[in-house]
Amino acid sequence: xxxxxxxxxxxxxxxxxxxxxxxxxxxxxxxxxxxxxxxxxxxxxxxxxxxxxxxxxxxxxxxxxxxxxxxxxxxxxxxxxxxxxxxxxxxxxxxxxxxxxxxxxxxxxxxxxxxxxxxxxxxxxxxxxxxxxxxxxxxxxxxxxxxxxxxxxxxxxxxxxxxxxxxxxxxxxxxxxxxxxxxxxxxxxxxxxxxxxxxxxxxxxxxxxxxxxxxxxxxxxxxxxxxxxxxxxxxxxxxxxxxxxxxxxxxxxxxxxxxxxxxxxxxxxxxxxxxxxxxxxxxxxxxxxxxxxxxxxxxxxxxxxxxxxxxxxxxxxxxxxxxxxxxxxxxxxxxxxxxxxxxxxxxxxxxxxxxxxxxx
Length: 360
What we know:
Elements: E1 6-11, H1 15-27, E2 30-37, H2 40-53, E3 61-64, H3 66-70, E4 77-80, H4 84-96, E5 100-103, H5 111-123, E6 128-130, H6 139-151, E7 154-164, H7 167-172, H8 184-200, E8 208-217, E9 226-235, E10 241-247, E11 249-260, E12 264-267, E13 278-284, E14 287-291, E15 294-298, E16 301-307, H9 317-331, H10 337-358
């Protein structure tokens, strides 16, 4: 039986929302019905720009004010890319309006705030999920297979997600504005590293964490300085450890390496896959041999690939994310794992930041 399309509303005209406009179009089971901004002209410009590249059959309407959009009866779900400092208010308002929610990350300023947000969604029987696209890449199933076949017992995870911002970005972008993005690069980038570690360890929480704010920066708008370079260490039961590094001042990298007693898996693009029509990773099971004076190390490298576009395609991870979410709504059942995993990620991040601030 044909299931009706999920009708999406977008709260805010953020840059990332343009990518997810296309993802909703490519999902095949959703349409953008409306976009809200504080000023209707801003929403209209956003719609015109997106519609010129990825047009829906019926042009989405521009709405003035987020509350107005939440009051519309033809909206089933909302995507919320608003700054972190504003998300709690509008996630709770969306839940109260009966709208399912995809929320950008970090989901909240604090664990306590996110608990309230998730509780509101559960109370009103709406689905909540954070917008971590790589969790919906079909590559992860292949990585899980490689872990079982090639890595053995897990021992160590090493993760890094960084990009090098210019001085204007560090001074003027909202990611250094403590009133809007108080977690800085820890919220914006380390969220992905922590999430990947939790995924690799099947949701197990660390028994101990540490953190270090390596560099801070303050917006020209004022307020407190926020982390722009941050590292953390996680210790899990069974002797497994993980380290992560996030930065706005180090050149582009998105490395994930999972090491075990038999070998390791390495992804050089674990957040946003390198451009192309396939995604993949490497395993390494090197073997050392000493023959008299000859000491040889066989690399034991293997490339694993599958057909999935990096972006802007029906098979890309962002399209999968909105397709998976819409399918969950269409099922009439709530997925409890999605909000629980978001809460675990927020908890680990908060613990690392608390540890970092306690040693300064």
